[in-house]
Amino acid sequence: MTRPSNDSVLCPGLVRAEANPEPTTPAAAFYKDDVVDPFAVAEMALTAVRCNRLHVFTHASSIREVEGRHRHLLDGFRDLLGADLGTPGR
Q1: CA-CA distances (angstroms) from residue 52 to 5, 6, 46, 90?
Q2: Which of 59, 60, 11, 4 is nearest to 36 (CA)?
Q3: Across-strand partners of 36?
Q4: Of the four listed, 10, 75, 76, 83, which is most buried by Cβ atoms within 10 Å?
Q5: CA distances from 37 to 2, 18, 42, 71 (A)
């Protein structure tokens, strides 16, 4: 896919940081067993930029969050249109 710009968007989950080794945010509970090393995130970002990828996701587990958010968005469109927009993947 051709994109109008070569920007990449970093969408990180919980990244280990020396300044806050024991985070207590709501995200910390979600990612409690999946904290990513900052050097790994940097490598993911560099690879994405080199490969001209738009989104840089650091945590595969966040797909559940994205799916849920998009389900709510599609429900809003269905309410607006009064129609079935079909099922995902069709």
Answers
A1: 9, 6, 10, 27
A2: 59
A3: 15
A4: 10
A5: 31, 11, 9, 30
Q: Give the pair of three-digit tokens for residue 48.
A: 């994405």
Distance CA 52, CA 48 (A): 6
Beta-carbon contacts of 56 under 8 Å, excluding residues fewer than 6 positions away, are 8, 9, 10, 11, 12, 44, 45, 48
Q: Are 60 and 46 in contact (CB under 8 A)?
A: no
Place of tokens 């079935």: 84
Measured from the Cβ of residue 62, the count of other Cβ atoms closer than 10 Å reads 18
